[in-house]
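Reviewers of the previous submission asked for a worked example of the structure-prediction workflow described in the proposal, so we include one complete record here. The input consisted solely of the amino acid sequence. No template or homolog information was supplied to the procedure at any stage.
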Amino acid sequence: MTDVLLKIDDVAKQSGLSKRTIRYYEEIGILPSPERSEGGTRLYRQEHIEYLNRITVAKEVLGFTLQELQHFLSLRDSLESQKAEYKKASDPKEQMEKLNEILAITDNQLEIIAQKIHKILSIQTELVALRERARARVKKIEEDISKKP
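From that input alone, the workflow returned the following structure tokens.
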């Protein structure tokens, strides 16, 4: 089975991203460069769309900046590489070494996510406190208004 090669219009439709964003991600190294036709047209594979979907989730769900996203994705690429090397390894010591590398990478990714969660919870705490102060002030003003003749 041969891979279907897609033009950027198709990738944009399937990923929900603009062509400009896709080209920008490629330019800054977040998205691996696709093949090119003889005329220079970018030719993407399904893996590119899957990668763009992972980028979108990391940006939207985790709130990553582009720099954080690059770091997180490089860890993910390293993780995939280590998983592939682990599967090739037959020596138990080599398998253990690869598993320890996988553990280190996943610990790093989990720490990045934990830091994001901490920041989100901190902002949430501030907003809840502000909301409660505002509600208390509204209640006080309502009481003051109702006391006036």
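The chain has two domains: 1-62, 65-149. We consider this example representative of the routine output the project will generate in years two and three.
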